[in-house]
Amino acid sequence: MGKGQVNHGARFHLGETTTSHELQQTSRAMAEIPFKNLHSREYQGHKKKVHSVAWNCTGTKLASGSVDQTARIWQIESHGHGKVKDVELKGHTDSVDQLCWDPKHAELIATASGDKTVRLWDARSGKCSQQVELSGENINITYKPDGTHIAVGNRDDELTILDVRKFKPIHKRKFNYEVNEIAWNMSGDMFFLTTGNGTVEVLAYPTLQPVNTLNAHTAGCYCIAIDPLGRYFAVGSADSLVSLWSIKEMLCLRTFTKLEWPVRTISFNHTGDYIASASEDLFIDIANVQTGRSVHQIPCRAAMNSVEWNPKHNLLAYAGDDKNKYQADEGVFRIFGFESA
């Protein structure tokens, strides 16, 4: 199948027969990236556990947000040599639950915190340039792909859209169901909400009028990722499955079945060929998007909170509930994909 084509008949489940064409595809994908030869590196700095990791649009910097009320910016080289410097973003008075970079500006980053504020920072100076106080504890944040708006979700299932230039709310909507992760499609005319009812609500943007309700899973949907080529979105659920959907058809194409615990975080790699997913299982699964097959597992020591692929290289940042031998938070995150440890 070509990159843009979608096989509507395909439901890959264990025990199904595989055609030689699919096997060729799988072996080709595995030949592309020998994941088993790659290593993870650990980055220490936070005093408490890391909730969120995110790469900037050029793939040169990684941000981490922590329960220790700070975010940190790390300059990462894809070859991974040299001392890693980090800049601390200080000012929040509660956990930094999620963060996201301006998709058009490699040095601007927004953070969402339990202290009810959303803050915009300059990653070079570490200074907060804008902040706005909203009505609740903020847990989800995402940029519109053109960089003009930011969507924020809070613990009370309220969605706020911010105009980035004025840094003021332009839309507010309270939902009468549990709203989890949120996302725009690549063209910015559709907005997705994952819900505790197992549905994905598809809204038109900017009107936020409902367009579609997708009955995606038998338990709550927790996370969503958009394929960088704009063909698919993926949803992770409390039923331990990840489902892959065609954006054009709004149909489920296949499910990824390797994990056994609720899926907390998912991410497509920069080519859209692989999807990483993680949970309380003690590994991160990497699967081939086209075949649905798992191609690698990265072992981890704790439940994962956040995984994100670099937008230019096959480097996967991940952070979880790691504890030291005294059962205190380690405050570390790791990056997988280096040729040496």
List the helices and strands and how they pair.
Blueprint: H1 20-32, E1 39-44, E2 50-55, E3 61-66, E4 71-75, E5 86-89, E6 96-101, E7 108-113, E8 117-122, E9 127-133, E10 138-143, E11 149-154, E12 158-163, E13 168-174, E14 179-184, E15 190-195, E16 199-204, E17 210-215, E18 221-226, E19 232-237, E20 242-246, E21 251-256, E22 265-268, E23 274-278, E24 283-288, E25 294-299, E26 304-309, E27 316-320, E28 332-338
Antiparallel strand pairs: 1-28, 2-3, 3-4, 4-5, 6-7, 7-8, 8-9, 10-11, 11-12, 12-13, 14-15, 15-16, 16-17, 18-19, 19-20, 20-21, 22-23, 23-24, 24-25, 26-27, 27-28
Notes on the protein architecture:
The protein is mostly beta strands. The strands form 7 sheets. Strands 1-28-27-26 form a 4-stranded antiparallel beta sheet, with no helix packed on it. The radius of gyration is 19 Å and the shape is globular. The two termini are 36 Å apart. 43% of the residues are buried. Keywords: Repeat, WD repeat. One of its GO terms (biological process) is mRNA export from nucleus. This is THO complex subunit 3.
Short description:
With 341 residues, the protein is mainly beta.
Notable traits:
single chain; 341 residues; mainly beta; four-stranded antiparallel β-sheet; 1 helix; 4% helix; disordered N terminus
Q: For this entry, what is the oligomeric state of its chains? A: single chain
What is the molecular shape? globular
**Secondary-structure element string:** HEEEEEEEEEEEEEEEEEEEEEEEEEEEE
Structural class category: mainly beta
Radius of gyration: 19 Å
What share of the residues lie within helices? Answer: under 10%
How many β-strand runs? 28
User: How many H/I helices?
Assistant: 1
Major sheet: order of its strands?
Answer: 1-28-27-26
The main β sheet shows up as: 4 strands, antiparallel
Instruction: Tell me the span between the first and last alpha carbons.
Output: 36 Å
Report the average pLDDT across residues: 91
Strand coverage percent: over 45%
Show unreliable segments.
Answer: 1-30
